[in-house]
Each structure stands twice: as C-alpha cells, then as structure tokens.
Design brief:
55% of the residues lie in helices and 7% in strands. By secondary structure, the chain is of the alpha+beta class.
Length: 693
C-alpha cells in the first residue's frame, strides 16, 4: 500500500505542476555550568511572559530531541507568527512524524514566514508524503514559500524527480517560456535548479536551457548543477557562459570543465577555456580553474606553475594540490615549486604530493621538517611519509609516537592500519591508551577495537574512568567501543570477576554511550541506573528566549581579529539561539584567543575555533544541529561538526555559496564587513581574538 500511495502521490504532483505551468571559563568549570551562565552584556526581560515560557519549552524540546505534543500544539496555536514558524521548524528538526500532516497544512498559512518555515521543515524531515503539497506550493505559493518548497523537493531526491524536471520544462518545446519555473521568480527558479543538482544523474537536458536565462541568479544555479557534478553532457553549455559577468557562475564553469567531463571530443576546448579562466580577476575562479586544469595531467605543467606563482596564496595552495597529477616524476618541477614558495600550506601540500607520486626530490626537506621545533611541520612530515604507497607505517608510528607534542603523537597513531593482527601495532596502541592526552588515548583505544581481546577490559575501564575528567568525550566513547568489541570477539575468556564488575557498572553517561555496551555486554544494569544529564535547567532556556527571541531583539555582532585585519559578523540569534548563545559566551570568556585557522580549503571554507590547532579540540560540550532557512551563501558563518549534533566551538566561514551544505549544518551568522580579509586567510594563519558587540 505504501508504494502505491507514493506512486499515486507522484502522479498527482506532476499533474499539479503541469496544470500550474501552463573556554578559559570552560576549563575552570564544568561544561554544564558554563552553558548555564548568562552571556556578558545581554539584556533580558522578565520571564513571566507566557510566550517566552512557551519559547523556552520549545527550545528545551528541540535541544533534548524530545517530541512533546503539548508544547508543539501550543506553539502552533500561538497568535505570534514567529512562534508558529519556530514550531514548524522544530517539527522538522526533531522528526516529529505525528505532526507532519500539520506541517503540510501550514504551507497555505496566511503568514508567509510560517508557510515558508513549514515548507523548509518538510525537507529537513524528509517527509515522503509531502511531495504533492510541496509541488502545489512550488506552482502557486508566494515566492518565499515556493523557494523553500523547491529546496525540500530536492531533499526528497528521487521521489521528487518528476516534479522537479517537469517544473523546469521537461517535455516542453519552450521550457523557458511555458514551464512552471518560467512563471516564477528567479529565486524560485534557482532553488529548483539547486535541487536538481541533488539528483543522480543530474538531468542535463532540463538544466542547460536555463544557462541562457536573463537572471544571473538562475544562470549561477544552473551552472552549479552542471559544474558541481561535472556532467559530461553539460560541457558545451558551460562553455557558452564561461565569460558570464557573475564570478560564481564562472567558478562553476571552471569546476565543470575537468578532463573527466570534457572527454576526448571537448578536451581541447575545455582546456583553452580553463587557460583563460586561470587569469580571471576572481581568485575563486582561478582556484577552480587550476584544479580542473590539473586533471589534464603533465601537458599543463607550465600552466599549473603559473598558478603556483599567483599573488593569491590560496590559488597557490590549489595549484600545489594538483602537483601529483601534473609533475609526476619531473624532479626539476618539484624543486622549482618548493624553492618558489615558502608558505607552510603550499610546502605541506607539496610534501604530501611528492610522496604520493613516489618522488624522492623533497625527501631531504621532509627530513628537515621532521626535526623542526614547529609541531605542524613534524606532523606534516608524518603525514607525507604515510602518503607513499609502500610506506612503512609501523616504523612511522614507532618513531613519532614518542614525540613531545601530543598532536604529533595522535597523528602518528592515525597513520597506523585500523585493522590487523599485528602485535607491534597492539603494543603501540596499548601504550597510547594510557597517554596523558585525550586525543592520543582515543586514537590508541580505537586501534585496539579491531584487535580486541579479553585482557583489554581492565585497560578499557581504566581509560573510561580517566576520561570522565576529560573536556571532550572522544576517549570515553572509544573506551566503551573497546569494551563492546572485547565482548563480541573474546567473551569466552573473560573471568567471573570481570563479568561481575561489568554487570554492576554504573557511571554518568549519555544514552548513546550506554547504548554502545548495555545491549551487547553484561553492562545492561547501567542503562537502568544511569540517568542522562540535562544540559541546562528550564530557566536557562527562558534566559536565552528572553534575550534572543523577543520581537525587535538586536542581532549581536562579533568581530574576528586576525593578522590580516578584522572580520565583522552579524549573528542570527533568532534562528540559532542556542548556538549563538554558546558562541557569545565562549568569546566573552576568552576561549577564542590566539588560535590558528587550522583548516582552510581554497574557495570552500575557513575554519577556526580549535584550541588544540589540529582540528580535534573543542569546548567540552556538544551543541545540537539547528538547521534553519538561512543558506550557505558567500560569507556565511556555520557550526563545524564531526557528525550529527557534535557542534562545539569550531566554526567556518564560506568563501563561496555552498548549497549542498544547506539543511545539514547550522548557519548562525554572516560576514557584513571584512570579507576581503576572510579571503586572505591561509591555513595556519593566526586568529587573535573574537570580540562581541
């Protein structure tokens, strides 16, 4: 019945479209106490307001991922459109299936902000029963609602393929004149095209006509759909807009002209266009152009060397990324590149690429780096050595597992094989499991999981006890994974004393942590005796609601101070209040001070917020994902995660729009001044501090 219903739903949807077409503080106290403290300088209002109380309970519900019918229904019945919109988003974020029908009804709400939020939430929820309602919204709802409905159809993927393609003119003789998209605004057309980009394969035939649209927004979205997926059938069409006035469109063109898309027949034309784009006024275009040029191999060596001399540091980094494919065994080219640029990130990339290419030209330089006082260079030497096809990873691990810097030790363990029966790796992992550094311990315990045996249980429980004092939960979780692995692999050898110890185990821990072991080991009692810690009391949610969610509340601003200058951000407190609140408090506590931008991917993101500097650090608490209608546009501020609901202190800034991140990550601000400063940042540059205004 379900499959028939979906099929019927799809046919009705297509028919509809056709018809309408015609820290310091963190270390000094517990994470819970830190989260509960009020941010400096934020005015609050009394919490006797019934609306504030409802806002607070909704925030708590979403934070705990608890489906509370009373709270949701009260918010949906509220006279405030803003509260009804927040309730709609909450239904999607907590996957509240019992209220999906209510979301579909809200698509026709008289308040377009409510209707738009409902349309977006249906995509976040991936409600397969919403195709018809979303198709109707794309066809005749106000633009702001239709745009979100189009996005949500893309999230539904294959279920919405027909709806999306028909809306864009599939089967129409003149799609740009007679289709649903032709009757809508450019923002709706762009949303439909960005959703088309999520389909595999991307339907090129309905996408390419829109490259001739009069709207730059539409053309950019069509170029994105074709260029990001590097669809061979779209190369000729991309070539026609290679000189488009919009620089992001040219970026997508440059990405889409790679060798694998151009094939033999269009290779020469694509390469010729890329050579022009390599000298584009936009650094972002040049970055994408050199990456695509690199796919043509040694024949473009001189052109890639041109990029390695570019005045923009991130263009040079992008050029270094292509060295392996282009330089091959040309020793003089490797040496020229190394001597030309002393930038850390460029040279780090060259060391990796040379090893991967099996070239020994930079071996002496790599050895010199392995002895440098700068831990980043020693870690780069470890990673470079491990990149060689025949690398002796065990020897690398042994040599650097004794490094004085824990970040290098963790990196050395990361190059060891995750699985295997080799006793030497076990020995290194066992030593690491008792290391003084949390990340090293987590790496060692992880290596033991696939090699687990009964005598690892005392080690795992000792590591768990020690990890309860850690700022983050990496080692604690790894210790539990090891316990579960031992039981699966070697439980017959576990003695009665250890069985008794496991059966009476009780400790503070999250539901997810207990679930790792409570159903597969004798530790079932833990799930009955341990209680999840509530991150904050209701009063704290009330404080946040009264600070950020009252009508007319001022958007806070943050200033990121860097060696290149200042970047001023506007924070979206009403859209992601828990994330903004944590960010503001961390900044006020001095957590964001004298760190490095530990990850910069040219023309993608700039990332910071890790006090360790290697990408593994955090504040000691986790934030839930809070996707909203805010998009990953150029200059957007997002919450970095390592998986669902694992956000903390790390954040990223987008060099260019990244539609594929929408809905998967939390956008909680945007750059309003200093975007040129953001563009100058290279991996390893300093972040001095963040000030809140």
């Amino acid at each position: 019945m379900r499959h028939r219903a979906l099929g019927s739903d799809r046919r009705e949807s297509v028919a509809l479209v056709r018809r309408f077409a015609c820290a310091a503080l963190v270390m000094a106290s517990s994470p819970i106490a830190f989260l509960a403290c009020a941010p400096t300088g934020v005015a609050t209002v009394p919490t006797t307001d019934g609306g504030i109380a409802r806002d607070a309970r909704l925030l708590q519900m979403v934070d705990l991922r608890k489906q509370d019918t009373v709270v949701i229904d009260a918010m949906l019945a509220d006279s405030s459109g803003a509260r009804r919109a927040r309730a709609a988003l909450a239904i999607g974020n907590v996957k509240f299936r019992a209220r999906y029908v209510a979301l579909r009804r809200l698509l026709t709400d008289v308040d377009t902000a409510v209707a738009a939020s409902a349309a977006y939430a249906l995509g976040v929820a991936k409600d397969s029963g919403a195709v018809t309602a979303l198709a109707r919204a794309v066809a005749d709802a106000p633009d702001v609602v239709a745009r979100e409905a189009a996005w949500s159809l893309g999230e539904l993927g294959e279920l919405a393929r027909e709806v999306l393609t028909v809306a864009l003119g599939a089967g129409a003789a003149q799609p740009r004149e007679t289709s649903t998209a032709a009757q809508r605004s450019s923002s709706v057309r762009a949303a439909l095209l960005q959703s088309i980009a999520k389909l595999r394969p991307v339907p090129v035939a309905v996408t390419t006509p829109w490259l001739a649209d009069s709207s730059s927004e539409t053309v950019r979205a069509a170029a994105y759909a074709i260029g990001r997926s590097r669809v061979p059938g779209g190369v000729r069409a991309l070539l026609r807009v290679r000189a488009h006035r919009d620089d992001e469109t040219r970026q997508h063109v440059a990405r889409g002209l790679a060798r694998q898309a151009a094939g033999d027949s269009l290779a020469s034309m694509a390469r010729e266009a890329l050579l022009v784009l390599l000298h584009d006024e936009s650094a972002g275009v040049r970055m994408n152009a050199v990456r695509s040029l690199g796919s043509f191999g040694p024949s473009v060596l001189r052109d890639v060397e041109t990029a390695l001399a570019d005045p923009d540091a991130n263009v040079r980094v992008a050029g270094a990324e292509m060295a392996q494919a282009v330089f091959l065994r040309d020793t003089s080219a490797w040496k020229r590149a190394w001597d030309r640029d002393s930038t850390f990130r460029v040279r780090q990339q060259l060391l990796l690429a040379a090893r991967a290419a099996g070239v020994a030209t930079l071996a002496g330089d790599e050895t010199e780096w392995s002895r440098q006082p700068d831990w980043r260079k020693r870690l780069a030497a470890v990673e470079a050595r491990a990149a060689e096809a025949k690398a002796d990873r065990l020897a690398i691990g042994r040599e650097f597992s004794r490094d004085p810097d824990s970040r290098v030790r963790a990196g050395a363990l990361a190059v060891l094989p995750v699985s295997g029966n080799d006793s030497a790796v076990r020995d290194l992992a066992a030593l690491a499991a008792a290391d003084g550094d949390m990340s090293v311990r987590a790496a060692g315990l992880t290596l033991l999981v696939s090699r687990a045996r009964a005598d690892d249980l005392p080690r795992a429980l000792a590591a768990h006890a020690r990890a309860t004092r850690d700022v983050q939960d990496d080692a604690r979780t790894a210790s539990l994974r090891l316990v579960a692995a031992v039981w699966r692999r070697d439980s017959a050898k576990v003695d009665s004393a250890m069985r008794q110890r496991l059966s009476t185990f009780a400790s503070a821990g999250t539901t997810d942590e207990r679930r790792l072991v409570s159903t597969v080991t004798p530790m079932a009692a833990w799930s009955r005796t341990a209680v999840d810690a509530i991150l904050r009391p209701l009063a704290d949610y009330e404080r946040i609601a009264s600070a950020w969610l009252v009508p007319g509340a001022r958007l806070p601003r943050a200033v990121i101070r860097t060696d290149h200058g200042d970047i001023t951000l506007e924070l979206f407190a009403a859209d992601a209040p828990l994330v903004v609140d944590a960010f503001v408090k961390l900044a006020a506590a001095g957590f964001y001070r004298n760190t490095t931008f530990h990850r910069v991917v040219p023309n993608f993101v700039v990332q910071d917020g890790d006090p360790r500097g290697d990408g593994s650090g955090g504040p000691g608490f986790a934030l839930r994902d809070s996707p909203s209608r805010r998009r990953h546009d150029r200059g957007s501020l997002g919450l970095a995660t390592s998986g669902p609901d694992t956000g903390g202190s790390q954040y990223y800034l987008c060099h260019a729009s990244q539609p594929h991140l929408d809905g998967g990550y939390t956008v909680f601000g945007r750059v309003i001044d200093g975007i040129a400063v953001m563009d100058k940042i290279v991996q390893g540059d300093r972040m001095l501090r963040i000030d809140i205004k």
